[in-house]
Amino acid sequence: MTLLLLILLPLGTQSTAGSAAALAAVLFLTMLVSAGMEHSAVILLAVGFLMSPLNDVRPIASLTFMTASDVFLVLGIGLLIPGLVGRKFRPPTAFVVGALGVVAMGLVSSAVNPNAAMSLNSMLRLVVGALTLPVVFMLWRPRREIVVILAAAYVGGNVVNVVAARINGQASDENRYIGLSTHPNILGFCAMLGLALIPFLLQELPRRFSWIVLLAGAI
Q: Domain boundaries in the chain?
């Protein structure tokens, strides 16, 4: 760790971006050493789920194809991969057929789209969200309390997004609330999914947290 700090020190003194990168690396490695691989993965995935509705929040403003949520999800999944290697994977037939259909239709649609690059980027996000994450979860088979943590994080992210939308006002081109999303529809879809998780959280969390869950659902 000391050697790593000595290596990162010059990077941290060169620029603001370098300082941020060095600090992030130190925090990541500190978490990894103190919490272990799986617990660190859960923390990163929880942050990624929390930031999923906030898809206009980016690590670097110019990287329009990457969100902050992407970074945390990729890091979290990356930490899980060593423990998933070698596990038997038998996906349901319906999932395989549906996945192939989604990818095939996405490729065809992108090929005929005038802006093929943007269309492929959107399809990649769909594949990661709708296909890759389910595969990881089927291999990982996390404990129920981890699922509750991730669900609560996603609901929390939607609360932040809705509050930001109210603070920012009707900011989109159509004078609709947008929050920290890139489009009003994303704000709405994510909020609906978050609302669908409220009954699950009410059932799984201790009763003393019920008022917090109900407040989040009301927001």
A: 1-35, 37-60+143-219
